[in-house]
Specification:
disordered N terminus, 8 helices, 0% strand, mainly alpha, 64% helix, 145 residues
């Protein structure tokens, strides 16, 4: 599968140019994941009334990481807060996490849906395009397909 993605994302004409390979999922780890965690942390504290320590335990983070997410010092490289479909999925994740924290499978499915939605809407494109050759970035439609 990775080989197929590699050939699609980096066609033959870039293979000998020394282009550093950065897949969309790598950009997602640096931008989408922190943005989603930040919204989840704020939602848990503000809407569900848990404190930072309880939120940290629920999310598997440190209390200081939750504090930085809530204070918007972390997780702000990608603006997804104005996308209703994304917020709905994040709310579903939070609600599921609070009601059944041991059911990680459903949370993982919801996270993948969230990431896919973010990619399909082109919200991750600016961050991804910064790391790609300009000629390739201008013609990329990988995430939207």
């Amino acid at each position: 599968m990775t080989c197929g993605i590699f050939k699609y994302v980096f066609p033959q004409n870039y293979s000998n140019l020394g282009v550093k390979v950065i897949l969309p999922c790598e950009v997602g780890v640096k931008t989408v994941l922190p943005a989603v965690k930040a919204i989840m942390a704020r939602t848990i504290v503000e809407k569900h009334g848990l404190n930072e320590k309880q939120t940290a335990d629920l999310l598997g983070l440190s209390q200081s990481a939750v504090s930085r997410y809530i204070g918007r010092e972390r997780g702000n490289l990608l603006n997804i807060e104005s996308t209703p479909e994304v917020l709905t999925l994040i709310d579903q994740m939070v609600n599921h996490l609070i009601k059944t924290p041991d059911d990680k499978t459903e949370i993982l499915k919801l996270f993948c849906q969230t990431c896919t939605t973010i990619r399909e809407k082109g919200l991750m494109c600016p961050a991804c395009q910064k790391q790609m050759p300009q000629a390739w970035a201008e013609n990329c439609s990988f995430c939207k397909e």
